[in-house]
Design a protein that fits this description.
single chain; six-stranded mixed beta sheet; 8 helices
């Protein structure tokens, strides 16, 4: 509201593109319209099946999508927007979406270009964009602080704006990387139950996809996204795992990702059973205490 009209042609030479958007690295796919339609329909069917199987989003939900401007979050936003406007056997869907973008300002004009890009997509789709500027502070572990700040901002928007779900664009590769990071950093099985499809308000609707599948979908559908050059920096432990450890493991056992995903599924099932047993045990203890506080 109050901003000048934005052009959505995504032509690099167009004078009406949002200020800053052309300045940073952007992926520019090419695609035919017939292939795009087929790809969209197939991906929506898979997404809908996963959401239904895991119970991630109900028709009455207001879903806040965390969107950085990268391929994963842009794909998630566009897919959920299309799904929210589709129909199932019971009729039109009724969940709505909004966008949360956090500008950390760490990359100067590129950070501002990311924000402008996300705002432009929001205007194109007709969904509200909540752009938040993070404080410019040096942190010993910036990535952990940035994650916590992002989730805090999203939780606050849920309280203030009435959103009922927070959608995060994590994929299978993110789960594998996080599993390996937790394995070498923490102890205990609970620390290895990483990135479940749903935890509280947070849902991860793209966990059924790999990073390569998401980028292929974007290219096949002619979807633009932004590239964050810091993802290629070896200064961060997660990047070291992605750029060095993952390729080494793939060389030893090409299907190691599938084995880790299977392990994660087993850990999730075990966690659910253990939580259920614990709840039943506490319920029995409370029942046997006759209302007395024995703790």
């Amino acid at each position: 509201r109050g901003r000048a009209p934005v052009c959505f042609c995504y032509n690099y030479e167009c004078p009406n593109r949002p200020a800053g958007v052309p300045k940073g690295p952007m992926q520019k796919p090419s695609i035919s319209s017939s292939a795009s339609t087929t790809t969209e329909a197939a991906m929506l069917a898979r997404l809908d099946g996963f959401i239904q199987e895991k119970g991630l989003i109900a028709d009455a939900d207001r879903v806040l999508c965390l969107v950085s401007g990268g391929a994963d979050s842009v794909a998630m936003l566009r897919l959920l927007h299309s799904l929210s406007r589709s129909k199932d056997q019971d009729g039109p869907r009724s969940f709505s979406i909004g966008v949360c973008h956090v500008n950390y300002g760490r990359r100067g004009e590129d950070s501002n270009a990311d924000e402008a890009f996300v705002r432009a997509i929001g205007d194109e789709l007709g969904v509200p964009v909540h752009a938040i500027r993070a404080p410019r502070e040096e942190r010993s572990n910036f990535q952990a602080w940035a994650r916590d700040f992002r989730y805090l901002a999203a939780q606050n928007l849920c309280r203030w704006q009435g959103y009922t779900r927070i959608a995060v664009a994590h994929n299978q590769d993110d789960r594998v990387e996080t599993f390996i990071y937790r394995l070498i950093t923490y102890s205990g099985r609970r620390s290895l139950v990483v990135m479940p499809p749903r935890r509280g308000r947070v849902v991860r609707p793209l966990l059924f996809l790999t990073a390569a599948e998401i980028r292929k979908y974007c290219v096949d559908s002619g979807i633009f996204w932004r590239e964050d050059e810091s993802n290629r920096s070896s200064a961060y432990t997660r990047n070291q795992i992605r750029l060095q450890v993952i390729p080494s493991l793939a060389g030893i056992r090409p299907d190691f990702r599938e084995r880790i995903i299977d392990t994660l599924s087993l850990l999730e099932d075990e966690d659910e059973v253990l939580n259920s047993i614990t709840e039943d045990a506490w319920h029995n203890v409370r029942e046997s205490s006759d209302g007395q506080d024995f703790l």
